[in-house]
Amino acid sequence: MLKDLIKNKVVISILSCSIIITSTYIVKASGYEAGSNMDPVATKSYVDMKIDELAKNVNQVIEKINSGNKGNIEEDKPEAKPSNELEIVSIKAGQSIILKSGSQIILRGGNGSIIDSEFGGIVDLTQGVDLRSGYDAPANHLLMIPRSDGRGIHAKTDCIFMVTGEYEIK
């Protein structure tokens, strides 16, 4: 019986110490700021708050950039604006469409041949190849013009193109 009493006191002492130590760590951990090095677990509200702060900073930077650009435009020089809108362009057989740097074109109808320059051809982004003079313009392929040096497409038949960017019909 004495052994059981001593055994129970030891078990109760160990449990009491464990509870005290665990409680101490819980109280200590709750005092740390969320997201700090001492408390690396972040709550959703903390992450949302940080994202909102970053979004405000990004918006401020964008506004500064936009307001800074407005003051640098000279009134007497018209600004050339490349068109980022998709435009449907039809040309007759025998005409050519010459594109500026960064322009993109897709042949949707008709037949045409590539016009290249001494610096290279037209980039076929669909196939990943450089199209040179003598190649037929592939239908429904996204083509991009790397430089403003006279590259384009000569229409063998009436053609319909989808064009993004600056171009000239000759």
Q: In sequence order, what are the helices and strands, one letter per element?
A: HHEEEEEEEEEE
Strand order of the main beta sheet, please?
1-9-3-7-5-6
What is the helix fraction of residues, given as a range?
25-40%
Individual helix count: 2
CATH class of the largest domain: Mainly Beta
Overall structural class, as computed from helix and strand content, comes to alpha+beta
Q: Please state the second-level CATH architecture of the largest domain.
A: Sandwich
Rounded to an integer in angstroms, the radius of gyration calculated over CA atoms is 35 Å
What is this structure's SSE topology?
Layout: H1 2-30, H2 44-70, E1 86-91, E2 96-99, E3 104-109, E4 112-115, E5 122-124, E6 129-131, E7 143-144, E8 152-155, E9 159-164, E10 167-169
Antiparallel strand pairs: 1-9, 2-8, 2-10, 3-7, 3-9, 4-8, 5-6, 5-7
Description:
With 170 residues, this protein is an alpha+beta fold. It has two domains: 1-44, no CATH class; 86-169, Jelly Rolls, CATH 2.60.120.10. Helices cover 33% and strands 24% of the residues. It has two helices and ten strands, in the order H-H-E-E-E-E-E-E-E-E-E-E. The strands form two sheets. The protein has a six-stranded antiparallel sheet with strand order 1-9-3-7-5-6, with no helix packed on it. The protein has a four-stranded antiparallel sheet with strand order 4-8-2-10, with no helix packed on it. The chain starts with a helix and ends with a strand. 14% of the residues are buried.
